[in-house]
Design goal:
The chain is mainly alpha-helical. It has two domains: 2-194, Cytochrome Bc1 Complex, Chain D, domain 2; 199-331, Cytochrome c-like domain (Cytochrome Bc1 Complex, Chain D, domain 2, Orthogonal Bundle). The chain has twelve helices and two strands. It has helices at 2-24, 59-69, 82-85, 133-142, 151-158, 162-172, 179-191, 199-205, 212-224, 256-259, 291-301, 320-331; strands at 239-240, 268-269. Strands 1-2 form a two-stranded antiparallel sheet. Helix 1 crosses helix 4, helix 2 (59-69) packs antiparallel against helix 6 and helix 9 packs across helix 12 (320-331).
Length: 348
């Protein structure tokens, strides 16, 4: 528990620092000549819950955020960008790694969560430690085993970049490289990432049809998975203990890191299942390399415990054929256009 208490303490003071950076820099920015954007709301989606009132989306702001997102100079060793761990080909999550790799060959303790459809959430990270996209953008930059940089260090590295000077001037009416402008631009980019064009979405619109296996898998999903992964977002954004044995090397107690409450022990945020077929590894610590392993866990390996979600007391009963069909349906949640969209790719 000593490691857990230390983690909670670090998170507490880290959150204070993040809140200070944001609150101390809030001020009106008079901007002219930029193209403001409306939040994208796909057909069938609810209204977004995230508020961009103090950081209105703009085409130029998103473009600045994209440049920053892929710039490895934001890390201490100039080798790690946001896009290093949040890869577009994996729905902006970790691609075929158990946990994220940070500066100087370090290894973080969690699998990087996907970064799309964030505007429908009010808390972020596996444990919900942050309540804004701006807070979420700061933590990896300052984290010593993630990017390990300071804002002063970033400023010194990019202040003479003419393209940055022009973009900051256009978006924020100043060419000054200030921390609040960096994180606002990053949060505009991540806030623009919307995925809603999978085969499932076309099926719901009546422009595509499911195969017999996909239809069977869809019905199996609705009967066994939809309580925690409801359509159309395929997550209810709750925190649940799904019966994973704790990795004593990591000692990650999930939501309890943030709240300090024993009843939150081993609870992690329910991830979306959109694009899950191409975003391995799985679970908060990336312990499963395939979706089949995930399904096997729910079928046979759920570990009992005081905070186990009651829905999983008896696991999930599926035949091998049902398991196979469920996998086929999950593949239909892949948005191939999104993971190849040049608007979100690394600038050339």
């Amino acid at each position: 528990m000593r490691k857990s208490l230390l983690t909670i303490t670090v998170l507490f003071f880290g959150t204070i620092l993040i809140s200070y950076i944001i609150s101390s820099c809030k001020k009106e920015i008079n901007i002219t000549g930029i193209q403001f954007l409306q939040q994208e709301i796909p057909d069938g989606f609810p209204q977004p819950v995230y508020n961009f009132e103090d950081n209105p989306l703009s085409k130029e702001g998103v473009e600045l955020g994209r440049k920053l997102f892929y710039d490895a100079r934001l890390s201490a060793d100039n080798q790690v960008s946001c896009g290093s761990c949040h890869e577009q080909r994996a729905g902006f999550g970790t691609f075929q790694h158990d946990r994220s790799h940070g500066v100087f060959s370090s290894h973080t303790d969690r699998n990087a969560p996907v970064l799309f459809n964030l505007n429908w959430s009010t808390s972020f990270h596996w444990d919900g430690a942050f309540t804004s996209l701006q807070e979420e953008a700061i933590q990896p930059i300052l984290g010593h085993i993630e990017m390990g940089e300071t804002f002063e260090g970033i400023k010194n590295k990019i202040k003479d970049d003419k393209e940055y000077q022009a973009l900051f001037k256009k978006v924020f009416n100043t060419s000054a490289i200030h921390p609040i402008y960096i994180i606002k631009a990053l949060s505009q980019f991540t806030g623009s990432l919307v995925s809603a064009n999978s085969k499932y979405d076309r099926y719901k619109k009546g422009t595509a049809t499911f195969t017999a296996q996909e239809e069977s898998g869809y019905q199996i999903f609705k009967a066994n998975c939809a309580t925690c992964h409801p359509e159309p977002l395929f997550t209810d954004y709750s925190y649940r203990n799904i019966g994973l044995p704790i990795d004593h090397h990591l000692e990650d107690f999930g939501r309890m890191r943030v709240t300090g409450l024993r009843e939150d022990s081993l609870k992690f945020k329910v991830p979306t299942l959109r694009n899950t077929y191409i975003s391995s590894n799985y679970m908060h610590d990336g312990r499963f390399g395939t979706l089949q392993q995930c399904i096997t866990h729910y079928r046979t390996n759920v570990q009992a415990g005081p905070t186990l979600d009651p829905l999983l007391t008896n696991g999930i009963t599926l035949t091998n054929a049902q398991s196979d069909n469920l996998l086929v349906f999950l593949r239909a949640l892949t948005d191939s256009n999104f993971i190849q969209d040049p608007r979100f790719s690394k600038p050339q």
